[in-house]
Amino acid sequence: MSRLMMASPSRELAEDAIVELAVHSNDVLGMSSRYPTYSDIIVAAGDLSFAVLITADGYSLAAGGKRFVEAFFPEGVDAAKVRFMRQGKKLAEKYPALADVALDFPPRHNAWSALHEVDPGSHVARQIELMRSFSRGDMPSSEFVHYWQEERRRSLAEGERVRGALEIALEEVFNAMEDYSPYVELRDDGDLTDAEFAAQIRSSLATLDSREGGSG
User: Fold this and answer.
1) H/E element holding 87?
2) Can you tell me the mean pLDDT for 144-168?
3) How many angstroms from the chain centroid is the CA of residue 128?
4) Is 53 helix (H, G, I), strand (E, B) or coil?
5) Which residues contact 13 (CB under 8 A, 6 or more apart)?
6) Is residue 149 very low, low, confident or very high in pLDDT (cuts 50, 70, 90)?
7) Dihedral angle sign, alpha carbons of residues 128, 134, 139, 145
8) Residue 107: which of 51, 160, 70, 178 has the closest Cα?
9) Percentage of residues in the chain having pLDDT higher than 70
10) Do residues 164 and 113 lie in contact, with contact meaning Cβ atoms separated by under 8 Å?
11) Contact at 8 Å (CB) between 51 and 64?
12) Cβ(6)–Cβ(41) under 8 Å?
């Protein structure tokens, strides 16, 4: 894909030729001035692998393949939808259509804040299961680190969202892994020891369990 295409889907402008732009063009806004302010504008890849609809109602819609979506929404699609809903409320007076659009595109996942809220079939649930298994001594730290990080990547890719105490606990585990290596010969000065790493995992679990009445 070496070109971008820009056009308006408005019926009254359908006869307008499609405008071709260089991929790295900085003149999209300038070129869009050829269309009336009431017109929506579509910017699409030459190979149609992605497209962005820029509306006259104050919002844009983007669609495309996995690589495009991940680059366009690095925080995840659901997080972007939640951010859009919040912005819609702030700008409701200027752009009243935003609230209705937000309702048409709700997040796929709720944001879980406690263990009992987590979908049992989710990757977040698997992260918790791995933490419990490691804390019981059922697996070595090398396996735990590998599989937990893999579940974290899958969770983010699926748009699963956490908040509150659950978000803090999972961030504690992730941060502990940043300061730890299962292989002694690869550790730097100041890295967590095996005992310190295991203690952090148990502490994060204990905090979550205490909020569930000590279950688990």
Assistant:
1) helix 77-90
2) 90
3) 20
4) strand
5) 35, 36, 39
6) very high
7) positive
8) 160
9) 80
10) yes
11) yes
12) yes
Cα–Cα distance, 95 to 8 (Å, whole number)? 20
CB 98 within 8 Å of CB 59:
yes
CA angle 148, 152, 155 (to 5 degrees): 135
Average pLDDT over all residues of the chain: 80
Asked if 197 and 178 touch (Cβ cutoff 8 Å), the reply is: no
Q: Would you tell me the crossing angle of helices 164-178 and 194-210 to the nearest 10 degrees? A: 180
Residues with Cβ within 8 Å of residue 126, at least 6 apart in sequence:
151
Tokens of 24: 């790295």
68 and 49 Cβ atoms separated by less than 8 Å: yes
In 15-59, beta strands by DSSP E: 19-22, 41-45, 50-54
Q: What share of the chain is helix, strand, coil (3-state, %, to 5)?
A: 50, 15, 40
Question: From CA 184, how far away is CA 105, in angstroms rounded?
Answer: 48
15 is written with which tokens?
């006869």
Looking at the chain, how many residues does it have? Answer: 216
Cα(44)–Cα(60) distance, integer angstroms = 13
> Which residue type does 169 have?
A
How many Å apart are CA 146 and CA 112, to the nearest integer?
Answer: 23
- Give the tokens for residue 13: 């402008």
Q: pLDDT per residue over 167-210, tens digit each?
A: 999 999 999 999 999 999 999 999 999 999 999 999 999 999 99
